Amino acid sequence: MFKLRSQILTFLESEKEYPVIAAFASGLYPLLYYYNSNFTLVNSWEQLGFFVFCYILLPVVVFYLINTLLKKKW
């Protein structure tokens, strides 16, 4: 338990940026909100895959690319 706590504190106190985690968090909320609000309209795995792509994978890729481009020295 103490090891997990120290790892979490080390992560939170770190100066390193994690754009992938930010993108995942920003996409997870609308995905969960949609499925919570419209549970009766959920009807296929393809729909879930589409929303995972739009709300999770696409933001992760965009945040990663923007972070990579901004780190480069022009």
Automatic annotation (TrEMBL):
<keyword id="KW-0472">Membrane</keyword>
<feature type="transmembrane region" description="Helical">
    <location>
        <begin position="20"/>
        <end position="36"/>
    </location>
</feature>
<keyword id="KW-1133">Transmembrane helix</keyword>
<keyword id="KW-0812">Transmembrane</keyword>
<protein>
    <submittedName>
        <fullName>Uncharacterized protein</fullName>
    </submittedName>
</protein>
<feature type="transmembrane region" description="Helical">
    <location>
        <begin position="48"/>
        <end position="70"/>
    </location>
</feature>
